[in-house]
Amino acid sequence: MLAAVDAILCEDTRVTRKLLSRYNIDTPSLTYNDHNARRVLPRIIKRLGHGESLALVTDAGTPLISDPGYRLVEAAVADEIALHVLPGASAALAGLVLSGLPSDGFFFAGFPPSRTLARRKRFAALVAVPGSLVFFESAQRLAGCLADLHEVLGPRPAAIAREITKLHEEVRRGTLADLAAHYSEVGPPRGEIVIVVARPDAPVIDDDALRKALSEALPGQSLRDAVTEVSAATGRPRREVYRTALEISGEAPDT
Question: Residue 231, CB half-sphere, CA atoms under 13 Å: how many?
Fold first, then answer.
């Protein structure tokens, strides 16, 4: 296919050239990535409209998954240009399979925000998703991201898959708290990383039911233990459960 098209759109022409050279493919290549997508998109659509055949490839993984390819597909669909796909490797799906967590329903959320407050807000919006959560993350932000996931989602099982399909492939499984502690201690791992988090154990309950659950859990154990228990049992974010527990116990929340 790559030998038959008029041009190949590449995330990085230098990377794709290695593949093309291996198979003696001399099709012209053009750069199409996050940095130039909006600028070159009109020219690409014009070429397609004139009947040319163009192929889109990425450096790794599947085109359109966390890259600007969807803009190209969106524009092509709007202009009624025929599209064809050849499925390839997907780190998100491979990580989900390797995690050992339920795969009958899942939500791919891409890269979380880099800043803590924005990241926790994003996680809070996903707390009720009735399926496994799949994220991409950088090595440098991994420990902080896992800590925020634990803070917002509670003690869910999770898995970290890195260097998938490569020589040093590794999958580490545990609770979010355990994984956050591990990577905080050993430092950032090498390679590309996929985080998979288990779905909530129970449906998210309303505020009245939350207060009732806390009222039953607080007597006889510490506030921290009660919050952990109720967060895990109800699917409500740990931060919300903590604040409600403080209101019930009459303590002032931390500022």
Answer: 25
Whether 149 contacts 123, CB under 8 Å = yes
What is the pTM for the complete model shown? 0.71
Secondary structure of 44-95 in HEC code, one letter for each residue: HHHHHHCCCCEEECCCCCCCCCCCCHHHHHHHHHHCCCCCCCCCCCCHHHHH
pLDDT at position 202, please?
A: 57
148, 123 Cβ separation under 8 angstroms: yes
Provide the pairing of β-strand 157-162 with 29-31: unpaired
Are the beta carbons of 173 and 100 closer than 8 angstroms? yes
- Whether 114 has a pLDDT exceeding 80, the answer reads yes
Cα within 13 Å of Cα(72), Cβ side: 30
| Distance in angstroms (rounded) separating the CA atoms of residues 236 and 218 | 16
Higher pLDDT, 60 or 137: 137
Q: Which residues pair with 10 in a beta bridge?
A: 31
Distance CA 158, CA 249 (A): 31
**What CA–CA distance (Å, rounded) separates 162 from 60?**
14
Among candidate residues 134, 151, 241, the one with its CA nearest the CA of residue 193: 134
SS3 176: helix
State the DSSP H helix or E strand holding residue 249, giving kind and residue range, or none if neither: helix 238-249
- Tell me, what's the pLDDT at 255? 42
Distance CA 231, CA 13 (A): 48
